[in-house]
Amino acid sequence: MKVEILSKSQEAIWDKFVFDHPLGTMSQTSKWGEFQAKIPTRGRYWIVVLKNRKKIFGGTIVIRHGLAKGKSWLYAGRGPLLDYKSKHFKKNIQLLLKEIKKIAQKENSIFFRMDPPLEKSSYKKWPKLNWFFTSHLGFQPEDTLILDITKSEKEILEQMKPKGRYNIRLAEKKGVTIRKSDPKNKEQFEKDLDTFHKILHETAMRDKFYGHRKSVYKAMLETLSEKASLYLAEHQGKIIAGLIATFYKDTATYYYGASSDSFRNVMAPYLLQWTVIKEAKQKDFKVYDFLGISPENVRNHPWAGVTDFKKKFGGAHISYLPSKEYPFKKLLYIGYRLYKFLRK
Question: Considering the entire predicted model, what is its pTM?
Answer without folding.
Answer: 0.94
